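Q: For a teaching session next week I want to show students how multiple molecules come together into a single three-dimensional assembly. I've collected the sequence lines for a complex. Could you give me the predicted structure tokens for the whole thing so I can convert them for display?
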Amino acid sequence: AQTVTQSQPEMSVQEAETVTLSCTYDTSESDYYLFWYKQPPSRQMILVIRQEAYKQQNATENRFSVNFQKAAKSFSLKISDSQLGDAAMYFCAYRSLYNAGNMLTFGGGTRLMVKP
Amino acid sequence: DVKVTQSSRYLVKRTGEKVFLECVQDMDHENMFWYRQDPGLGLRLIYFSYDVKMKEKGDIPEGYSVSREKKERFSLILESASTNQTSMYLCASNSGSYNEQFFGPGTRLTVL
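A: Of course. Below is the structure for the complete assembly, covering every listed component.
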């Protein structure tokens, strides 16, 4: 079974600065997907960014980018030019290609606070 | 836009009550999921369904059951609620064509 670990329960960043959230995972599989989801306070969880394990290039979505280190089983999220609206819980998730139903395994989450 | 709705945002029940949490999605997704979210533990999968009347246990199915009679609706049932089932419950759905799961707003259940 896969496990996902987020070692930082809370992080804070000054508005306009850059912050990196850490995620490591454990798997014996070679092909899989990794995700970062954002859960704003009292709002629905939304997908931030997705990475396919077979792609060497790190995924980027506007101010959000990942540092995917397959050998180290590390998948960190970098948020550049942080904004107040980035304050949220962030969850790292793993999806195997070999199970039915597209199930996700989530990490424990990191609460990001953005200081004005 | 994909929309996943849940029947209640907040729910308070008493120990021993039977509790129904309902989830509806409007995008004809074949897969639907129920998660439980607790601080520090992230989201843990309770049950999922990949088709009408089909269900599979997730990581923590004990004390829960599910029902999927129609493709768009997936219900989570607590047969006899207990205080340790006080939690946030999230429903999600997706299609085999997409990897992304779309989430509902969640139901915060308190069992007294």
